[in-house]
Amino acid sequence: MLHLCIHFGCVHHLTGLRSFCDITETIRRCRGEMDWLQVADSAREWGAARYVGLTLHLARSMLGTGVPDDALERLVPGY
After folding, report:
1. Based on the number of CB atoms within 10 Å of its own CB, is 53 exposed (0-12), middle (13-18) or buried (19 or more)?
2. pLDDT in tens, 57-71
3. Are 67 and 30 in contact (CB under 8 A)?
4. Contact assessment for residue 67 and residue 56, using Cβ atoms and an 8 Å cutoff
5. Angle CA 41–44–48, to nearest 5
6. Which residue in 25, 35, 47, 55 has the fewest CB atoms around it within 10 Å?
7. Helix axes 2-11, 17-29, angle to 10 degrees
């Protein structure tokens, strides 16, 4: 998940619907296995919490991606 979000945020400069589709499908397939706390902690450790949080927020807003509120709050407090 981090790779998809960081790649989208850094490489594509926030363009391209395909990346959102990839993120959405990954979350859908890994729904019961996704450790959102680990995603947020790793993103913070890598200094990428804003990239990851923004990308997940956009995916959720545009495609209804199943990103929990608490995951976004951990990534970008007060989102």
Report:
1. buried
2. 999 999 999 999 999
3. no
4. yes
5. 130
6. 47
7. 170
